[in-house]
Design goal:
about 650 residues, alpha/beta, Rossmann fold, 4 domains, about 45% helix
């Protein structure tokens, strides 16, 4: 079939009747079918409309599934080359549908073609838009729009510099009327059903451009659109909150800030739990002190001012941090579930016992023992509250899809299809799939979408790095063993450096020495986590090099000047070290024997360290360990050989 017209309806029977009437007055000249998806409407007029149009295919949902899911159901119900998705408040003008189809046939790279929309008064609606930025989101979709109604950013977003009277490619178009090509839909996937209402059209257009398809706007086809913008009619309307929720979901999906936060959410989760723990500890100590102060008449000793307890607070935080780390409170597996009451009591009791012992052994009579005794049950209650709050935050993030791993699948279509059929809803496994990669057999047709048509083929395996960056992927799930070639090794290294998690199906993945076994998605897997410490280790190495160079320059300055006054000149030496690695060339001051002088004469080496010419640590270090090289300079100068004059200027 050439065309499927899909209308998603909810409590809009009057609008729906006008829309269907216009479609019957102005039918498309090609083979077509009309599908109405009703999201459990409650208005009494729906039965009347159904009886008036028996030739329409009706899909009646038992509950409101949202606009995106309703549209997907309608498109899947009638396979066709094109799907025209309409709001019920659309009226088709003469020749409009045929004009859309003619343009789509003439422009084969057009994934979406949208008509010109007219208001009920006949005026042109600004239905073509530029993509949102964070600034335009705030100025357009929050109360800030009342303060800056004529902002330049908003005007550019609404394309007010465009007369909407000519055909052109645009970032995105309003979803009131969209003609979508089947091949494009299969390549980018259906409408994203995380958007219950609003922003599903923006997301779809964005994905079209990402996959190389165009979004076209044309005034050659004109529809009437009774656009009410219910989302802007006050914060007490359900549509407003649906719009805000979809806006957050859209920015979570494509915004750089939230993308980075999601990639770092595990260390950030540890930081959040630690901050909650320290807040509970500090609050418990403060309340214990205040209770002791309130009970002052019952005690003979005078309570010292709160300022005197500052050191105790700092010591308690350090002590609790060390104890919690050693006891595994911040381990990944333990953070998944709330700690039991007995576990919280154990932690609180241990920290309190250590505090009491420390103040007793140090004879710190400054701190009141009753304060520390009162602190124990308060800290226990605080840790219990922390567990509840932390679990609630994780649950809320889970409901909002903020804990899902955006995942790219890599493997054969057959293996992935079998797994998708067994798992069905991957979101229960914490997976937000964006598509799959597999190599295309020469001469064979392009691989199609998998699952229920919602997992598109994104390209061959060689496109791994590009597709990960394009779709904001945080995890890659492989169904095939690493090929072991240099190109794939470089790609995997790039992904790990960018904090992308790599996971292999255990049966196919073989044994990876640095991978961690884990049950995932109904199968056993091996996972390589991005190493948090790699960049920090590199930074620490750079800082240690610069610090060592500066210290050596300061300490060797005077001996160096004495040596130069005596006629000594900097000479190039080769140091081989004791590890059998590549030789390293260093600028050193020689003694009378021709061997390097001891370390504290070597200002040139300090300068090389400070300038970055020599590295003491790290995978790319140009020398061995600092103790070996410096020890050789002090005790074994024979390890250094002068570089021949002919080679002195050549770098290895």
């Amino acid at each position: 079939m050439k065309l499927a017209v899909v209308i998603v309806n909810y409590d809009s029977s009057d609008d729906l009747a006008r829309c269907l009437a216009s479609l019957h007055r102005q039918p498309a000249r090609c083979d077509h079918a009309i599908v109405v998806v009703d999201n459990a409407s409650r208005d009494p007029g729906l039965d009347r409309v159904r009886s008036a149009y028996p030739g329409v295919r009706w899909l009646l949902n038992r509950k409101n599934l949202g606009y995106a899911r309703g549209a997907n159901l309608g498109v899947a119900a009638v396979p066709a080359d094109f799907a025209l998705i309409l709001n019920p408040d659309i009226e088709v003008l003469p020749g409009a549908v045929d004009a859309l189809l003619a343009l789509a046939d003439a422009r084969p790279r057009a994934g979406i073609v949208a008509p010109q929309l007219l208001g009920l008064d006949g005026g042109v609606q600004h239905s073509a838009r530029r993509f949102y930025t964070l600034r335009t989101l705030l100025l357009r979709r929050t109360p800030l729009r009342r303060l800056f109604p004529n902002s330049r950013s908003v005007r550019e977003h609404l394309m007010l510099d465009f007369d909407h009277g000519s055909e052109r490619a645009v970032d995105w178009v309003l979803g009131g009327a969209l003609l979508v090509r089947r091949q494009a839909r299969e390549r980018v996937g259906p409408l994203d059903e995380r958007f219950f209402l609003y922003f599903e059209d923006i997301d779809w257009c964005y994905r079209m451009w990402q996959a190389g398809w165009e979004v076209l706007y044309t005034p050659a086809a004109r529809f009437i659109h009774g656009h009410r913008r219910a989302s802007t009619q006050g914060a007490f309307r359900r549509e407003f909150w649906s719009h805000m929720g979809s806006m957050i979901s859209f920015y979570e999906k494509w915004g750089l800030v939230l993308y980075v936060l999601k990639k770092w959410r595990r260390p950030l989760g540890v930081l959040l739990l630690w901050l909650l723990d320290m807040a509970a500890l500090g609050g418990a100590l403060l309340v214990a002190y205040l209770l002791r102060a309130a009970l002052q008449p019952l005690f003979p000793e005078q309570l010292f001012p709160l300022a005197e307890y500052r050191a105790l607070f700092l010591f308690a935080w350090l002590l609790a941090t060390a104890a919690f780390i050693l006891l595994g409170r911040y381990d990944r597996t333990r953070r998944r579930k709330a700690m039991s009451a007995s576990g919280s009591l154990t932690l609180a009791g241990l920290v309190s016992l250590l505090l009491l012992a420390a103040t007793f052994l140090s004879h710190q009579r400054l701190y009141s023992r009753p304060v520390l005794l009162i602190f124990v049950p308060l800290f226990w209650l605080g840790l219990g509250a922390v567990g509840i709050v932390y679990a609630a935050i994780r649950a809320r993030m889970g409901r909002d899809d903020l804990t899902l791993d955006r995942t790219l699948l890599v493997g054969s279509a057959e293996a992935l299809s079998a797994w998708l059929a067994a798992r069905r809803d991957l979101r229960r496994d914490g997976i937000d799939p964006v598509g799959y990669l597999c190599d295309r057999t020469p001469g064979a047709p392009e691989p199609g979408p998998l699952g229920a048509g919602d997992l598109p083929w994104l390209g061959p395996r060689d496109a791994l790095v590009v597709e990960v960056a394009r779709h904001r992927v945080s995890q890659v799930l492989f169904w095939e063993a690493p090929r072991g070639d240099a190109a794939e090794a470089e790609a995997l290294g790039t992904l790990l450096r960018n904090r992308v998690r790599l996971r292999w199906h255990l049966v196919e993945g073989g044994l990876l020495a640095t991978a961690r076994p884990e049950s995932y998605g109904g199968f056993s897997s091996l996972v390589l986590e991005p190493r948090l410490g790699a960049r920090w280790s590199r930074l620490a190495g750079v800082l240690s090099d610069r610090g060592a160079g500066l210290l050596l320059l300061v300490l060797s300055g005077i001996p160096y000047l004495v040596a130069r006054a005596g006629g000594a000149a900097t000479t190039r030496f080769t140091w081989r070290g004791g590890g059998g690695g590549e030789p390293v060339r260093l600028n050193l001051i020689p003694g009378r024997t021709g061997r390097p002088r001891p370390l504290w004469w070597q200002a040139p080496l300090g300068w090389d360290l400070l300038a970055g010419g020599v590295e003491l640590y790290g995978p790319e270090a140009s020398s061995g360990p600092v103790d070996a090289m410096w020890g050789d300079l002090a005790c074994a100068p024979e390890q250094f050989e002068p570089v021949p004059a002919a080679e002195a200027g050549a770098e290895p």
